[in-house]
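Data deposition worksheet. Section B asks for the primary sequence of the deposited chain exactly as it was used as input, without tags or linkers unless they were present during the calculation. Section C holds the resulting structure in token form. Section D is free text for depositor observations; keep each observation to a single sentence. Incomplete worksheets are returned to the depositor.
Section A, Depositor: J.P.
Section B:
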Amino acid sequence: MKKDKIILGWWEWVAIPELEIHRIKAKMDTGAKTSALHATKIRYQRRDEQIWVEFSVHPDAKNPSKTIRLSRPLHDERNIKSSLGHMTLRPIVEVELHLGQHRFPIDLSLIDRSLLGFDILLGRRALQKKFLIDPSKSNLRREVQK
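Section C:
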């Protein structure tokens, strides 16, 4: 099965156009089950029998002062253990991730990652069926294909 999988480096450029994120460095984190996106001012809102999550993101790595406000339907809530061992209940939204020429849905937990090095990390659930990670490499996919 190895030959069917695409090799990624320990970080790659990705995009999430529906969140207006067109180019962001993502860390591949095989120690994490669920992918995570840096988001602030996270609030829940009920709209016509459905719960939505409103949140702010920084869509442009070159301009960290730019912030946009977004909302997505709440896909799930999960208790997720941080790298420091703290358990938090996080909102999960489903989005389409663009990685090189590949497009696929992933679950993203929303959490304030301001003290961490990457605004997005991709966990095992997003990576396991399609990719292998080579930790000695980085940016193997080069650019996100539009």
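Section D:
The longest strand covers residues 87-99.
The mean pLDDT is 87.
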